[in-house]
Write a sequence for this structure.
């Protein structure tokens, strides 16, 4: 197992910054005639194609070793949840709020790491997690009646998927390169995403010629795919170079980038309680990052 913490952290920061752009590009595509699920479908097709080409060019086999099968199944399910649920949530709730909910996953990783990696979380970690969940309650609670429950549930499902994605990504990297298992993962999840997209579109895809998608929508959809390809590769490399519990806190950059970008390109403004709750969640994430350093 490769363990190069510094390189893993650098990859994590790069991935986080790029991932922060994705929900905003999806939201912008929605405003230009392309549903979130279709942006997800297109980016899944693009990354499956590009990673397959990379894998073949490197002379690697497009097969799953027997020992990697459990982690591969986990990675596929996790990637499906993140792709469909998290990106789908921004169709129902503001990007900033979706990010607040989704970004509970580093806290979940912090709590589950003892079980996966054989360590005890300790009282301080539990207190940090409590602060994060209090922040979520403040962000969502006062506005719950006016929010679309579908968006909240989808963002929460995305957080669960992201947690599983980190641990399974670390495990599968023992057997396969990021390009190899990344290509197979996205090939596997492409059919269910296509089914969901066709079902949601009543038998049609809006980004195809003749549909209502605008040229701006197609541009944002393409940006979603391009940014995701680079970010996913950086994420999987970060997990190859360092444990999930080491790199996960550095993905705290994503909610900052996502919220700032939402304000810049979407002119999105959250309510005061959502900023306050989001601040507590971010503070908890930063605290978990500092705690990780203190423990070394």
């Amino acid at each position: 197992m490769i363990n190069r913490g510094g390189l893993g952290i650098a990859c994590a920061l790069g991935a986080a910054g790029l991932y922060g752009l994705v929900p905003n590009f999806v939201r912008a595509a929605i405003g230009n005639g392309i549903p979130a699920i279709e942006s997800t479908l297109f980016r899944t097709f693009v990354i499956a194609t590009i990673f397959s080409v990379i894998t073949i060019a490197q002379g690697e086999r497009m097969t799953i070793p027997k020992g990697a099968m459990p982690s591969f199944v986990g990675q596929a399910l996790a990637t499906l949840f993140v792709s469909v649920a998290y990106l789908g949530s921004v169709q129902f709730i503001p990007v900033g709020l979706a990010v607040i909910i989704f970004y509970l996953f580093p806290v979940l990783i912090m709590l589950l790491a003892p079980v996966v990696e054989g360590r005890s979380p300790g009282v301080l970690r539990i207190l940090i997690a409590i602060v994060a969940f209090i922040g979520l309650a403040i962000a969502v609670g006062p506005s719950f009646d006016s929010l679309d429950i579908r968006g909240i549930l989808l963002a929460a499902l995305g957080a669960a998927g992201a947690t599983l994605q980190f641990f399974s990504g670390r495990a599968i990297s023992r057997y396969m390169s990021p390009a190899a298992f990344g290509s197979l993962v996205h090939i596997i999840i492409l059919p269910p995403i296509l089914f969901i997209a066709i079902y949601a579109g009543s038998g049609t895809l809006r980004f195809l010629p003749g549909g209502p998608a605008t040229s701006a929508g197609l541009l944002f959809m393409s940006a979603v795919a391009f940014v995701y390809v680079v970010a996913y590769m950086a994420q999987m490399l970060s997990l190859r170079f360092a444990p999930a519990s080491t790199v996960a806190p550095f993905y705290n950059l994503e909610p900052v980038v996502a919220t700032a970008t939402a304000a810049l390109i979407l002119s999105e403004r959250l309510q005061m309680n959502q900023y306050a709750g989001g601040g507590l969640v971010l503070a908890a994430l930063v605290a978990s990052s500092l705690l990780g350093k203190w423990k070394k």
